[in-house]
């Protein structure tokens, strides 16, 4: 049973670009936002070494430094940033109830969900060892660093096919490692891959190990699951494109989701189907998944929350 209760106007769950941008806008609108960062303050970007595609950083910046800048800006306007995770929610009545760290209950007039999504990994120790040093789960984010080099990408769905063709524009050679003897991608995407001359599709192939020199990736060791033969493919970059898992488990049964668990919002807004609950960033976007689009949707969520509260205030004044 929760021992402590607190009421807030605006509660933000999650602390990546979406959450921090929502916090900046909400704080400037005097909503006095309280943010719970989750167990990974800054979200996925804290796993990224260089960020070169976010406007305003002409010389680039590391992901952790960028998130630190976002946090300081949110705090400058009065956001109460707290380390902690939301363990359960109850959206059955207003104000909404949220339990933090299993012990504290927050009641909130508005809730902005920015819990993001987590890239699925193969689960190899070498994958984590070289994450940010040749290993990436985002071709659009990191492909530029491998211009003119040889890279490998693992995956067989539409995302993998799309990222492989994106990399092919930048890289000398792209090895696409497909576990079975066929793609899971749509026919149109398969056609695009097969008609890109510098993509070599390697079927019936599993990744055994990512090899490196201690600093960077130098090759990928693969297993042909038909012949049982192992071989090394020399590459300088290794991209994992086997999907993302949105961090939405605690919202199951409360909010509408698509078949993979991404939160559904009313098109053109950040509004969920529950009054006063908004979603922004990768938790509701499986298409763009960029820091800049997450930040933009965080701005939308704060503006939607502010307008929702203003409309509620007008309602209360009319009724009284």
TrEMBL record:
One of its GO terms (cellular component) is cytoplasm. Residues 9-298 form the FAD/NAD(P)-binding domain. Keywords: FAD, Flavoprotein, Oxidoreductase, Redox-active center. Its EC number is 1.8.1.9. It holds the Pfam family Pyr_redox_2. GO terms for biological process: removal of superoxide radicals. Its cofactor is FAD. One of its GO terms (molecular function) is thioredoxin-disulfide reductase (NADPH) activity. Belongs to the class-II pyridine nucleotide-disulfide oxidoreductase family. This is Thioredoxin reductase. It comes from Pedobacter psychroterrae. The lineage of its organism: Bacteria, Pseudomonadati, Bacteroidota, Sphingobacteriia, Sphingobacteriales. The gene is trxB.
